Each structure stands twice: as structure tokens, then as C-alpha cells.
Structure prediction request, 160 residues.
Amino acid sequence: MKQETDECARAVHNILRSHMAIQDDLFRPTWRKIIRIPGVYRPVPYGEKRDELRALAEQLHEIRTRIKGMKPEGDDEDGRFLISLRAYCTSLSESILALSDVCERLAAKSNGEDYPRSSYEKEIETFRALETKSMEIGKSLNELRRKERNTSTGNASPQG
Prediction:
């Protein structure tokens, strides 16, 4: 794998890790969230999480632009990987922005605005569907990476 391709893949992986950490902060149950004792309970900073998510989506946009500038072609493994990585960036970005929208609505609710539970559930369902789509693309991307590694080390298994 070319160095620039590897750099893009690592950058996307770091963005994914940050995204997962934000999801943990938002959704992981903790005693502080369950038992809201004044002075102990700290509300989730939804506005901050929204901003962090939007920054991640912007980083993905920059990576997509970088990949597009590399002009990948599907006739070699590196090109196929880049094309899939770009699709993954698009899908992950859609998922991140959907979660960002939920955070925005939750931040507004924290400030007294209305956010019906039915709307929340619908938006979370949309987010989860987008997340599932990006996970599927991620699985195929991992498979391409695995094949590339096996080919470069000479461990390619025979096709039958």
C-alpha cells in the first residue's frame, strides 16, 4: 500500500476512534446519569459533542477531497482500496452528522426547547441505520486491506 493511502486510512481510523469515544460519552450509562445527585451529576455537554462531531465530519470531507485528488482507479488494489475508503468516509460522515443533529436537538432541549421523545427515537433510528451502512462498508474495506497485506507478504490463499 502506498504511503499516502496508508496515511489516509490511519487518519480515518483515528476519526472513527474519536467518533466512538463521543458515542460512549453520549450513550454509555453511568451512575452519575442514572442517579442525578446535585453536585455529583454533570449534564452531558451536548453542544460540545455536536461541535466535536461536526469537526470530525469536516476532517472526513478533507480526506475525501485528498483521495479524489489522488485519482484512484479500480484496476489495482491500492485504487480499489482508496475508492472504498472514500465511500466509507462519505458514509461515516453521514452517520456522524446525523448524531450531530441529535446532539443539537438535545442541547436545545437542555435549554428548555421542545424535543418530543418520538422525534428523538426516529432520529436515533436514522442514525443507527446510517451507522450500520458505514459498518458494512468498513467491513469490506477491512477485507480489502487484509487481502492487500496477504498479497504483499506472499500469503495469498489460492482461489478455488
About this structure: The helical segments are 3-27, 31-34, 46-69, 77-110, 117-153.
